[in-house]
Structure formats: structure tokens, C-alpha cells
Amino acid sequence: MTEWGAGGWIAANASYEAGGQQLPDVVNAACSFIFAAHNYSASVYPMLTRGAAHLITEFGSEELKTNYVPKMFAGQWQGTMALTEPQAGSSLADITTHAEPTGKNYYKLRGQKIFISAGDHDGVDNIVHLMLARIKGAPDGVKGISLFVVPKNRVQEDGSLVFNDVNTAGVYHKMGYKGCPITQLSLGEEGDCRGYLVGEPNKGLFYMFQMMNEARVEVGIGAASIASAAYYASLEYAEERPQGRNLASKDPRQAPVMIIEHPDVKRMLLFQRAVVEGALSLLLQCAQYADLKKVAEPAEREKFSGLLDLLTPVAKSYPSEMGIMSVSQGLQILGGYGYCDEFPLEQHYRDIRIHPIHEGTTGIQGLDLLGRKVVINGGQNLIFYQGEVQKVIDACSQHSELEPYAQKLSDIIADLISLTRHLVLIKDRPEYFLADATLYLELFGIIAVAWQWLQQGLEAWKALKADPNKSDAQFYEGKIVTMKYFFHYELPKTKGLFERLQERDGLTVKIGQAVFMD
Amino acid sequence: MTEWGAGGWIAANASYEAGGQQLPDVVNAACSFIFAAHNYSASVYPMLTRGAAHLITEFGSEELKTNYVPKMFAGQWQGTMALTEPQAGSSLADITTHAEPTGKNYYKLRGQKIFISAGDHDGVDNIVHLMLARIKGAPDGVKGISLFVVPKNRVQEDGSLVFNDVNTAGVYHKMGYKGCPITQLSLGEEGDCRGYLVGEPNKGLFYMFQMMNEARVEVGIGAASIASAAYYASLEYAEERPQGRNLASKDPRQAPVMIIEHPDVKRMLLFQRAVVEGALSLLLQCAQYADLKKVAEPAEREKFSGLLDLLTPVAKSYPSEMGIMSVSQGLQILGGYGYCDEFPLEQHYRDIRIHPIHEGTTGIQGLDLLGRKVVINGGQNLIFYQGEVQKVIDACSQHSELEPYAQKLSDIIADLISLTRHLVLIKDRPEYFLADATLYLELFGIIAVAWQWLQQGLEAWKALKADPNKSDAQFYEGKIVTMKYFFHYELPKTKGLFERLQERDGLTVKIGQAVFMD
Fold first, then answer.
1. Residue of chain A whose alpha carbon sits nearest to that of B177
2. Would residue B359 show up in a list of annotated catalytic residues for this protein?
3. Where exactly are the structural domains of chain A?
4. Which residues contact B172 (CB under 8 A, 6 or more apart)?
5. Hey, what CATH topology would domain B203-360 get?
6. ipTM confidence score
7. Catalytically annotated residue among B85, B277, B321, B359
8. Domain A2-202: which CATH class?
């Protein structure tokens, strides 16, 4: 952690005033991708610290900023986000961790938090939890949740640290992602756990959503990065492993070919590459919207903010869900070796499975997309999005090789808009409206990544026209082939999703628990 | 193992003459399913022993039968299948393990075998490898492979055992399926490894395919059984875990509901059940064909044999591939707990990942289905299959509730046949013909399981008309709902596969390795 801090990586995208380098989010996201591809677990420590420090910087008091942020940016102290409780995972409304006012500048906290990533470790001198809790007498549900800084060791007036009654009650034994401890915390066992309110009471969830939205994009980056590492590992294996012969000439006296020559292996590699580079592209697009949202003219800010809001659940879920499939195909390329720990694939396969779970499950992302992001402001976000996609379609329509793909995307975006209108008609019956929100998210993700691939295809096509050197030309041709792969193999998956989503029969709403008795 | 043997389970489906109970395969398969659902690793020991013993019984000499089979059926000795070598996994043509004739009743073997399941352990007194090797001077490729019994300890004339120079060179460290050791074997390090020829020279692969075909169906059973255990574990959790509220009334003062009440959770449970019980049904159908093949009138045997041949790659792959997805959804239902070892899901997730790999990868099954099983005898197997499916469609067409589903299946079978005809036209360009064989297998699998669900729906519908008691009625209604789930959520996935398979553009054939350079 001190290395991350000393290198300036934790504060990299913070403002100069906050001690950062004002690195654009899009560059920062690319750096996160590289770090996470090398070692996902290791990348989580600075990522969480950065998010927690940003939250204090944005909403905290001067005292909190002075006492905590510099040490966090320096990598001397770890930051976390502490939301989940044993009875409150997806349902944050049910948080019960209790904050008692003391009349001083702190509250006394009592409660349990679970699944806290990097919640305790020896690599730092202190842990700073950004924690949700309920102030005594606060309203029920999400409207009564406040945000606190709850350090493991609190800073006293003289600057020294004293233990703050934040106890590590346990460490979870996970399937993968083992380089980062996930802890259970017990707060105030001795009645001396102090929490410092961030911003105003009862607005905690609103503040926390800043960190959660950043973290959701970071989860997407983490998933894409693991899938990327897996892609290169399986590509290397496919290039070096002799096995079998060309199907057209199976003469056993011929030497075996490298397995990368088999069409089915090329298909698996293209699938991996299409997912990895398509997901990365979507993630960088989101980071760019985050940058533009900050620097654009006020009139344009609403647009970039809306685009980022709309695409965040997609950029979290597509890399997570499809990343799993992609790593699994990579493992498959190695056959039996893929299943053994001599090669890295089996670890990637275990590591990446966390991503559809943490920072809001895929089901929660689906509800967020269809139930909130698509419908707020009369569907304005979707109109912004349609405009962005249309720009790429228009730019392709003059190029004969790309035009058929642009046409496909154009048709499918029109189908998506009309499906959405069709669904929104039953918005007043939310269980029916949202029953297949997860499938809607899946559909939306495939289309968004098709948009990104068309954009990449367009850039590659332009670059090829500009007479590149041989190695660059290879790279751009690879991009165009992968784009074609995506449109021919992945985009057709939307067909079945459209069919189901148009049905609206409420099959899963109407049935009771008795259906599962046998 | 001795418990399995003493209970009669290893020999259960062998003939009376061979020391078995002549249990029908369909009953035996159901028993295998139950054992494997309890502990997949444990179920592999008797399964392999049974397959190896059957092979000796069917093709071995009297001496081999007398010396080895009784101990194997008794569970005192372990059986294995020893095919794979470091340079020969999917490509058995490249086996180099060497068998030197001695002029006596044995050959001297030298070579390396890898990934040998249950290849050495302390639970038995001896290990009997059914091993592929190449007799000195044999033809190249698969036509020069012979089958040998190669025991770890060989039986001497006086019945005593002596070490046979079969050395365990290593044990693989696998991601899951850890209850069964997968070993590397080194044969003849001291020049004293004796192998006993089974049947005739150079016919080894033909003999071995009997065991492999049995083992492929067993792999399907193993996958379905793990997915079944995962289904029941996640169902139990969903019934007991309170979280969130009905989307129509999110009042935080109401008590949370059990998560099984959320439509998205019901959808995930239905998916699991549809995969598990659909896969099991297909596997039992195969086992029934195996029975009928033995007892049917000679004129009908060809039909049942052809159906079993055709469906074996499907019955191996669908449970394996979809079982992974199904376990993954089960894990997802548990959220963060699903990723931790306090609950069984994370183990199921690791365990089931072996199934698309061993006994022929999914890619190999795709080539087997489209490149061999569908095309041999002028496509006769597919005609038999179409007849079987039509029988169920016809039986449903009088029942108004089932008729629309029967119609869907009828349409899709017609599409499958016409797609197959379309593909077979390019059979003389095998790389183009087989480029998407894996996708064809996936398509074939979804349709085959839809057939099985319609059959289950029909039986449930009949049973409901017969005024069952309340608990039986619940069971049958659950079957009908799951059938509907399959037709509304799973069958539409064929749409995208049909679209891609009709394109036939050879995208993955034409590209070279350079596409992947960047």
C-alpha cells in the first residue's frame, strides 16, 4: 500500500487541492485495468482507499479531511466501504448499526458489519471505514441512513492514535480473490466506538452512492482485467500446444498442429477477446463520461451524467457475467491443465466469480437499470444513449465494409427502444414490469458492447486506410475480425432475449413457493 | 470401495453370468445419480471400476476375467481408464505408450499416462488400468492402438500379487473434485511392466469406446447430480433467508420477505430445476435406449443403438455445460455466502467445472455429434430421433394446455432438420462444415431437453387429470411450471444459434494466427 501511495496512484485522479494529480478518469481507469490484470486482489486495496478518501474529500468536514485523507492517499491507511450487515445485504433499508449522539463531535456506534473487503490487515497502520449506520430516532428505511467515518484507531487531539473499539470478529474463507481479506466487524463491544458524521444526518446513502457508483465501474474493470489475464494465458497456451491435425487432412503421420489452428479454438479465443476488449471499451467510455461530466459546459453536463448513470449497471454487469464465461472458455482451451493449479486459469476462474456478487448483485443492477436509470426523467437517459449510438452508426454508413454492421446495430437499437416502451406500459405493476429485469440488463449489455465494437471497428478501419506499418496493420485487422465475431456470434444472442422479454406473462410472478415442493 | 462392492453396486447392471444382478441401466443410472449427488468424487471410484470390469467381461480372455473381474466387482480392486498422455489428450491418434511382444501371454509396456482418475490410492489392494498402447510395428494413428489390462500389482500363477512396475509419478492439484486423485503414471521404469492384451491387436480404440460411451453418459449424470445438489442447497437457502420486500409495497416497516418470494430468485430456481430435471430426464432416456438395445427385437436394435449413439455426446455435454450455469445461479442466490465455504455452493461450483473437460471435451463432443453421429448411415440416426420426438408431439396435440408447446417443438425440430441438411451440403469441406460444431451441439442439446420437458409435462398433465392427492398435485404442477419455464426462457436461446449456424461464412476458418497478435 505504501508503494501505491508513494507512486501517487491512490490520489491520481483527485484534484490538486485534495492532493491529487487531476489525472483524467479515463487514464486512471486504464491504469486500474493494468494493475488489476496483474493481481486483482492487490488492486483492491488502493481502489477502496481511493473511493473512501474521495468520499471524505467531497462530503466530509475540514477536520476529517485533515485527519484522514493525507494518510489514505499516502497508502499508510486503508479505506473501506462498510455497508453490509448479517440481515442487510442487498436490502440496505434494513441496516441496524446504531449511532448514538453524544453532544460532542462524534457518535457512539454499535453493530455488526460483514463482508468488509480489506477490513483489517497488517499492511497499514490504520483502517478507515466509511460506514452506514442509523442515528437514534432516524426514519425507517433508506431515508434514515447516515454516513460515518469509523476508524479502527481514532486520531486524538494530539494526533496520536488510540484503538476505537472496532473488532475483527472473523475472516471469510472464499473460493477465490484470496489475496484480499473479507472481514466481519463488531463495533462497540466495549461501548467506545466513535463514528464521525460525514455531511448531514440521514443522507448517508446518497453520499455512499458516489463511492458505490465508482466502485461498480471498478468492479467492471476488475472483471475485465481478470478476463484479460486469462485471455492472454490461454492464447499463449494455444500458440504453443501441439494437438490434433487439420480436419481436412487427418493423416496421423503428419506432425500435429498447434491448437490455435483449430477453428473451434480460434472461436474460443475470439470470444474471449470480444468480451475483454468490448468490456474494456465500454468501461473506458464510462470513464470518459465521468470526465466530461466534470469539464463539459453546464448545458451538456446533464447528458454526460445521465449517460454515466445509465451505463453504470451495464458496465458493472456485462464484464462480470460475460467475464466468467470468457475465463471459462480460456480454461477450456487448456483442457485438463486448465483445471489444475500449474496454470493460472483455475485461479482466474475462482477469482472472477465474486464480481456478479459484490457492489450490488446482477439482479440488483437489473432493477437499477430498468426500474430507475431507464425510466427517470421520462426516459431522457435512453434518448441520450440512442444519440450516442446513432453517432457511430452514422459515421460507419459511408464505409461499405462497416455499413452492414451499422445497419444491424441500428435495427437492434430500434428494437430495444420499442421493447422498452412496451415494458414501461406496465410500470404501475412493478413486479410484472421488473420480473425479467436481469434479462433486460443482459440484452442491454450485449447491445452496448456491439456499439463499442462498431466504434472500435470504425477506428481500425480508418487506421488501415492510413497505410500503417505491418505490425499496426495486424493489430487493426485483428480488431476488425473481432468486431465481426461479435456481430456474428454474440449479437444474435439478443434474439432469444427479445423474444422472452416481449412475452410479459409474469410466469415467475404468479407462481408460489409450493411449485418448488417435491 | 469395499462397501460399494459388498452392497452389489459395482456389478449391479452386469449379467448374472458375470456376477451381476442384471439391473436395468435406467435403474442403475438413477442410482448413480443419487450417489453422485451425495458426493461426486466418491461416486467416481465404483463408476470407473464398473466400466473397466465391463470391458474385461466383454472383450477379455477367460484368464483376465477370472483373475481381475471378481475382485473389481467386490470393490477390493480399483479399475481405471488410462488413455491420455502428455502429448495426446483429445488426439488419441498420437499415443506413444509402447507395448513390446514377449512371446508369452503378456507384453512389456513403457510410457507415461496422465490425468488418470483414481489412478492410485490406499482404499484398495490393487489398481487395474485399462490402458491404450501401441504394439511395436503397429500402424500409425488410431488404427494402431491396442487395449491392455495393466495392473499395478500383477497376479502370479499362484494367485499372489507382485508389483508390476506401474509408478505414480505425481498427483494433480485440481480446482475441485478433490476427493478423487488424478495421477500421472510412469510405466516400465524398471523394464518390468506387463500388460495383458484385451481382444485383438489394434482394435483397442473400438473396445475402449464402449467404456468411453458409458463414461460419457456417466459424466452427464455426474454433472446433473452436482447441479441437483446445488439446486436443493440454494432452494433451502431461498426459503429461509429474509431479505427485501415485494416490489409493489416497499414499506420498510414491513418485515422482509423470504427471498424465494422475489420473481428474480424464482427465475433462478426455475432455471436450475429446468436444467437439472431436464438433463436427468435426457440421461435416463439414454439409459433406457441402452436397455432396449439389449432386449429389443433384432429389427429394432439398430434404432435404439443409433439413438443412444446420437444422444451420447448431447447427454454428456448439456448437463456439463448447463450444469455449470445452473450451479452458478445457485451460488448467486446465496450472494456473498455463495462465494464462501460455509455453504456447499462454492464446492459444487469448483467440482462441476471438470465435466466439460474429461471424457472428451465439449469441442470433441460437437465434432462427434455433427461430424459422425448425425451423418453416418445417410443420417439415419437423425430420422430415428425425429420419430421419437414426433411421438411426444403427437401425444400432446390433443391437450389444449400442451398443444402450443408441442407446436413450438414441432417447428423447431423442423428447423433443426433443415439446418442440418444445409450444413451437410458442405460436408466435403470439413473445416467449414464443422467450424461451429460446438454451437450445433449446444442447439441440439436445448432442443433435446425441450423434448424431454414436453414428455414430463405430458405425464404430469395426465397425472393431474387423475385426481391426485394434494402433495402429488403440487409436484405435478411444479413439473408443468418448469416445463413452461423451459419453453419460455430456454428454448428462445435457439434463435441466436440458428441465426449463426445458418451463416456458414467460415469466419473462424479463414483467419490466421496473426489476428491475435497485438
1. A339
2. yes
3. 2-202, 203-360, 362-509
4. A336, A340, A342, B115, B182, B183, B184
5. Butyryl-CoA Dehydrogenase, subunit A; domain 3 (1.20.140)
6. 0.97
7. B359
8. mainly beta
